[in-house]
Amino acid sequence: MKLQRFAFALAGAGLFAATAVSGSAVAADPKPSPAVKLAKSKVAAAKSSAAELCYSWAGWVDPAGALQSAEIYPGKPPTSAPSLGFKFVGVRASGTWYGAFDASDRLYFYGLFLQGGNLYRHATTVSDAGVITPKATKVGSGWTSFKTIATSNYSIAQPRHTHLYALNANGSLYRYSQVGTAFRALGSFPGFKSFKAMTVISETATYDTLLMTTTAGAIYTVRIPVAATAKPALKLIRSTGFAPYEALTAHTCGTRGGSLILGIDHDTDSAFQYAFSKANGAATAITAYGKAPDVFNGTTTAPFTTHYDQLVGE
Q1: Taking CA atoms, which of 47, 146, 200, 301 is between 20 and 30 Å from 210?
Q2: CB pairs under 8 A, 24+ apart, for 10-15?
Q3: Structural Rg of the chain based on CA atoms
Q4: CA-based nearest residue to 59, from 111, 120, 101, 131
Q5: pTM value surpassing 0.90
């Protein structure tokens, strides 16, 4: 079994290296998106710590293999504006897309995704002329039984950390630490058999917090200390109301730790937006804004953000 071999390799070696994917995996988009300039300004504003508007920024890969993204602004009902769009590859699960500038001050996005039974790392560059060129690198196989993934990126202060969380069909939540281009297994937590959607809602020097839903419709925060041997702490926010969603996104909103949450129902290609106060179990205040106007016709939806933003929702 691939998963068993993969787990054994991690246990024996601790780290596994990336191997290159053929150049045909993804291709440059010859038609620059009109949203490129706006994306650059958003990443630049975050890098300079400038204040930004409160909105959800989400992306999905449509059936034609094109990545679509949109900004969803809170209101009753929410409004939206198109963001980046370009040719990509089919994905079945994706971590967060992080926008950053390289040493040459060129914009790029990076992140992780699952395609079939493989985990890939991508780096999607945006030239000064606006040409978008994705490149994918295979990290490893053995991921067939993983249902979804989420990533954290605490990068604003020491000690920094980058974690990959992976929800397995066996009912366990796995965690990996990224070190350069390699990953180290940090073990797994049982008891997550009934969970199906997750996203990171908080990143700090000492813990990450996931926002997770169950098949019955409950929604929880799952705080996971950075210490490798520590166990997660679950808090129930609501016991019902979130069953339709196969994917979640979270973005910080305001200065008091609030978040904008997008719940995506891929059965109906729709998304619904919520405002959460700083998460505190059942005491969390929730405002439902309603259905976003976009068609979320992908197999999964992932949050877009920048390398310089940190989530503080719990």
Answers
A1: 47
A2: 10/184, 10/185, 11/185, 14/184, 14/185, 15/179, 15/182, 15/183, 15/184
A3: 18
A4: 111
A5: no
Q: What is the DSSP letter of 172?
A: -
Cα separation, 165 vs 188, whole angstroms: 9
Whether 80 contacts 290, CB under 8 Å: no
How much of the chain is helix, strand and coil, in % rounded to 5? 10, 50, 40
Tokens of residue 182, six digits: 């390699």
Amino acid sitting at position 206: T
Q: What is the DSSP string of 98-119?
A: EEEE-TTS-EEEEEEEEETTEE
- Burial of residue 260 (CB within 10 Å: 0-12, 13-18, 19+) is buried
What's the pLDDT tens digit per position in 101-136? Answer: 888 888 999 999 999 999 999 999 988 888 899 999
CA pair distance 178, 155, nearest whole angstrom:
12
Residue 287's SS3 state is strand
As a whole number of angstroms, the distance between CA 296 and CA 58 comes to 10
* Residue 279 three-state SS: coil
Rounded mean pLDDT for each run of 10 residues along the chain, 314 residues in total: 29 30 42 56 60 84 92 96 91 95 89 96 89 93 97 88 97 93 91 98 96 98 90 97 98 93 97 98 98 95 92 95
Q: Helix and strand tally (H, E) in the chain?
A: 2, 23
Residue with tokens 């290296």: 17
Measured CA to CA, the distance from residue 268 to residue 55 in angstroms comes to: 22
In the three-class reduction of DSSP (H, G, I as helix; E, B as strand; rest coil), residue 228 is classed as coil
Q: Which residues contact 47 (CB under 8 A, 6 or more apart)?
A: 100, 101, 306, 307, 308
- Are residues 61 and 67 in contact, defined by beta-carbon separation less than 8 angstroms? yes
The sign one gets for the Cα dihedral 98, 263, 52, 83 is positive
Cα 219 to Cα 150, 245, 257, 286, distances in angstroms: 16, 11, 18, 12
Hey, what are 222's tokens?
């799952």
At 226 the pLDDT is: 93
Q: Cα–Cα distance between 101 and 289 in angstroms, integer?
A: 33
